[in-house]
Specification:
This protein is of the alpha/beta class. It has one domain (about 5-290): Alpha-Beta Complex (Spore Coat Polysaccharide Biosynthesis Protein SpsA, Chain A). The chain contains 8 helices and 13 strands. It has helices spanning about 30-45, 55-65, 90-95, 100-105, 130-140, 220-235, 245-255, 280-290, and strands at about 5-10, 45-50, 75-80, 115-120, 125, 145-155, 165-170, 180-190, 195, 205, 210-220, 260-265, 270-275. The strands form 2 sheets. Strands 1, 2, 3, 4, 6, 7, 8, 9, 10, 11 and 12 form an 11-stranded mixed beta sheet that branches. A two-stranded antiparallel ribbon has the order 5-13. β7 (about 165-170) and β8 form a beta hairpin. Residues about 10-15 have low confidence and may be disordered.
Length: about 300
């Protein structure tokens, strides 16, 4: 069975200050998405589904989609405010200031994903090893209902030198299975210790804790749950135009009622991101070095 990669590219990029999904960071102007698609093709993925906003569809098609249509099957879906929202709540949806979040972004890809799939952020660099490991896991667990997976990165390797970040801290058992995800807010490195400020006060975190960078592996059975659960979220948050439907919370809920188990897959890959504009030069330099070392071709 084919395996798909769903790339979530509809975010606003508010902290970064622009459409970082289309920012050329590689030595030949490659976007981070270019690296993700390149690694997915090399790892054996059969299809890429891009979840984007309709307002930058033409620019996206010109700068990204045209590069891959002859290399891998590519599909595009729009994450609109009213997608999968009942008509009774259409005014609630249209009053929103931003998309519904990662859980909703995955849901809108429902009709484009026939089997096992991975879901990633468009603006995160995940590394070759992560795609290889995920592709292997998806092929091994296909058609196993509720058998999901997640690439785990070490917390210390996912921080920014230019401001605090939010991370999904993973709690696992001795078998490497995810027990729950704790959303750590305003995480920053102070001296030799990492702290989060979720409850308003600094609390320490283990630098080697696994974190979720939204590199998930699912079977298509998750869509049935997402569709029903999202409707509940819309009802519960109808008076909050900034609420978001996050996929880690969905997975937590599914595990809590016995509908899913999640295997945390450690990776040797180095995660990189551009949360802030000040992060950009670091990522540009790193991608350039990887080309010089032959890890990636200069142009692709």
């Amino acid at each position: 069975m084919d395996i798909s990669l769903v790339i979530l590219a509809a975010g606003m990029g508010s902290r970064y200050g622009g459409l970082k999904q289309l920012d050329g960071l590689g030595p030949d102007g490659q976007t981070i998405m270019d690296y993700s698609v390149h690694d997915a093709i090399q790892a054996g993925f059969d299809r890429v589904v891009f979840v984007i906003r309709s307002d930058f569809h033409l620019e996206f098609k010109e700068k990204v989609l045209s590069k891959y249509e002859e290399k891998i099957k590519c599909l595009t879906v729009f994450q609109d405010m009213i997608s999968f929202v009942p008509e009774a709540y259409s005014q609630v949806a249209l009053a929103r200031e931003k998309p519904w979040g990662t859980g909703h972004a995955i849901l809108v890809a429902k009709d484009c994903v026939p089997g096992p799939f991975a879901a990633i952020n468009a603006d995160d660099f995940y590394g070759k090893d992560a795609f290889i490991r995920m592709a292997k896991e998806l092929k091994a667990s296909q058609n196993k209902k509720g058998a999901y997976s997640m690439i785990g990165y070490r917390l210390k390797n996912t921080l920014s030198d230019h401001g605090s970040v939010n991370r999904g801290i993973c709690v696992t058992n001795d078998k490497g299975e995810l027990q729950h995800i704790f959303e750590g807010l305003k995480i920053e490195n102070k001296g030799s210790q990492i702290f989060h400020h979720t409850n308003g006060q600094p609390e320490p975190l283990d630098e080697n804790a696994y974190v979720s960078m939204n590199f998930w592996g699912f079977n298509s059975d998750i869509f049935d749950f997402l569709e029903k659960d999202f409707l509940g979220h819309v009802e519960e948050t109808k008076n909050d135009p900034k609420s978001e439907y996050f996929i880690p919370f969905v997975v937590n809920d599914m595990m809590g009622i016995g509908l899913a188990s999640v295997k945390v897959i450690p990776t040797s890959a180095s995660w990189q991101g551009v949360t802030y504009q000040e992060d950009r030069p670091v990522v540009v330099q790193s991608l350039s070095m990887m080309s010089e070392e032959g890890i990636y071709p200069h142009s692709f």
